[in-house]
Amino acid sequence: MKGDPVDPYDRILETMQAERAPARLREHVAAAHDRTVVRRTVVRRMKLTGVLMAGAAALGIVVGLAASGSDDGAAPSALAAAAPAARAATAAAPRPAGERLAASVGGVAFPRWPGWAVTGQRSDEVGGRDTRTVFYERGGQRVGYTIVAGDPLDWPDGARRTTAGGTEVRTVRRDGRRLVFWREGGRTCIVSAPARLPEDALLHLVDYA
Predict the structure, then answer these.
(1) What is the pTM of this model?
(2) Segments making up each domain of the chain, as ranges
(3) How far apart are CA 10 and CA 1, in angstroms?
(4) Of 37, 122, 137, 177, which residue is 20 to 30 A from 101 by alpha carbon distance?
(5) 163 - beta bridge partners?
(6) Is 152 left (phi over 0), alpha (psi -120 to 50) or beta?
(7) Which tens digit of pLDDT belongs to each residue from 69-107?
(8) What is the SS3 assignment for 63-107?
(9) What is the DSSP letter of 155?
(10) Assigned fold of 78-208
């Protein structure tokens, strides 16, 4: 293994000592040597700082990309938005307000369906979207009606297209439930019920929504 390189100033000083150079000259050379050491130290620190700053900047870019990738702004799927309607209510039923209920999302109020009792409600966030679900019961059957805040969601893949009272709807069966999707006031509306309930009965509810 090679030894450390010899500083040229050290060689000069050794030579001057051997030759008994004047003290003033030796002091001048020693001072120049000290200044050189200081400059080298500063340069090394600047280089190290530059490397650290570059690394931090690169890390910041990576973290920024990771953060942006964790929330790319994509809307949730319509099927994901329908999930809360299959869960339990977490709040008391909203009170009546004329022909509607005192509960709404984005200006779209929940209906009062004739013959159906309003039993509860819940609020959820699905894929960054606020949703509200009101539950109705009749004859031991429970139906959940969900309204999703924000722009309309895409129709679910594989859903059947039909109409209810002149309103375009999509129907699909998933996981033992029958789902009906439509749009009202620029919001996505969803009725979710056990699959044993006939589709015509749910379309009739949509007509009253």
Answers:
(1) 0.66
(2) 8-70, 78-208
(3) 22
(4) 177
(5) 168
(6) beta
(7) 334 568 899 999 999 999 999 999 999 999 999 999 999
(8) HHHHHHHHCCCCCCCHHHHHHHHHCCCCECCCCEECCEEEEEECC
(9) P
(10) Phosphorylase Kinase; domain 1 (3.30.200)
